[in-house]
Amino acid sequence: MSINQETIKHIAKLSRLSLTDHEIVLFSKQLTDVFTYIDTLNEVNTDGVEETSQVTGLINITGEDVVQTIDAQTREKLLQQFPSRDNDVLRVQKVLGDQ
């Protein structure tokens, strides 16, 4: 499957991406390579092969949230050390951009 430059421009427009001419040529080739590889994989006989989502055997391990109480004096010391706060609300810097 070949992904032409017009398709890349269309995808970029839908995604609101600004691409240079070099990027358009590069992504056209890269996506063509990806879809060619997928076509190759589609030719593999997978009859009798069980579907898997991961093969490492790892699982998510989570612990229970535990609330630890502290005395009022320690709590106030901690709050006073925080650089930006509004009463008991601690303000932190923005993690995600404005995009």
Automatic annotation (TrEMBL):
Gene symbol of the encoding locus: gatC
Catalytic activity: L-glutamyl-tRNA(Gln) + L-glutamine + ATP + H2O = L-glutaminyl-tRNA(Gln) + L-glutamate + ADP + phosphate + H(+); L-aspartyl-tRNA(Asn) + L-glutamine + ATP + H2O = L-asparaginyl-tRNA(Asn) + L-glutamate + ADP + phosphate + 2 H(+)
Record Gene3D superfamilies: Glu-tRNAGln amidotransferase C subunit, N-terminal domain
Description of how the protein assembles with itself and partners: Heterotrimer of A, B and C subunits.
Major enzyme class: ligase
ATP-binding recorded as keyword: yes
EC number: 6.3.5.-
UniProt keywords, alphabetically: ATP-binding, Ligase, Nucleotide-binding, Protein biosynthesis, Transferase
Keyword Kinase: no
Gene Ontology terms describing biological process: glutaminyl-tRNAGln biosynthesis via transamidation; regulation of translational fidelity; translation
Family listed: Belongs to the GatC family.
Function: Allows the formation of correctly charged Asn-tRNA(Asn) or Gln-tRNA(Gln) through the transamidation of misacylated Asp-tRNA(Asn) or Glu-tRNA(Gln) in organisms which lack either or both of asparaginyl-tRNA or glutaminyl-tRNA synthetases. The reaction takes place in the presence of glutamine and ATP through an activated phospho-Asp-tRNA(Asn) or phospho-Glu-tRNA(Gln).
Signal peptide per UniProt: none
Name of the protein this chain belongs to: Aspartyl/glutamyl-tRNA(Asn/Gln) amidotransferase subunit C
Listed GO MF terms: asparaginyl-tRNA synthase (glutamine-hydrolyzing) activity; ATP binding; glutaminyl-tRNA synthase (glutamine-hydrolyzing) activity; transferase activity
